[in-house]
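EI: anyone free to look at a 270-residue chain?
SC: sure, send it
EI:
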Amino acid sequence: MSDLRPIGVFDSGLGGLTVAKEIIRLLPCEDIVYFGDTGRVPYGTKGPETIKRYAREDEKFLLSKGVKMIVAACGTVSSVAPDTAADLPVPFVEVISHSVKEAIEKTVSKKIGILATAATIKSGAHRRLILESLPDAEVTEVSGSLLVGLVEEGFTNKNDPLTIEAVRRYVQPFIDRKIDTLILGCTHFPLLADAVTSVLGEGVTLINMGTASAAAVKRMLTEKHMLNPTGGSHRFFVSDKGAEFQKTASVLLGEDINKENVETAVIDSI
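SC: here you go
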């Protein structure tokens, strides 16, 4: 059995392209429909009810494209509004629980760090899930919202003094607490992995939400006999095409995105 419908992926902006990138790498025959709500980004500074409303609208848009699964490739939505998926007619994957599971499996000292947006940290989702499985864990949380802009401006090189100084300021609490595992709790942050490692050292294991979530997507589609053996096309929708859209999107996805492949979505009319 197979299911030729596309996988739907959404994020508050373009950061979720790092999750789409991992899904594409792991499942190259799957069609992908990506929606980035660039007209209302960032979600991380919004209140819970606003985030939930945006998430429902994003999910509704993807359903209108006939997707077989929805992936909330957004740490903020996954931590603040996972309950919006309760009534979805298709399987749903978020990016929090899978990264937490991997962190728990890999930590030795039980000292785990979380680098995420303010809204994700405030939700306490990572901490709660970690302590449910590992009650004696020591969890250190840091809001690194300003690093999002750094990534979108292309400052990701570990040899760039600006990048290293910004990363150092945010990860110092992890150094002080001697963590051995760090969850990169925002989809932008995997692009800073080399810079983070150069500051923290090779002894700290970094958890990429995209990698962990892509593995969950593959596992779920396999179990439900919903894999597509013949696809591989990718469509991209955004709610606003900013001047730097193409540049930022290409940096996050790791390959060029042609303007012809990007459509503007009007989600409030669906």
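EI: The two ends are 31 Å apart (CA to CA).
SC: 👍
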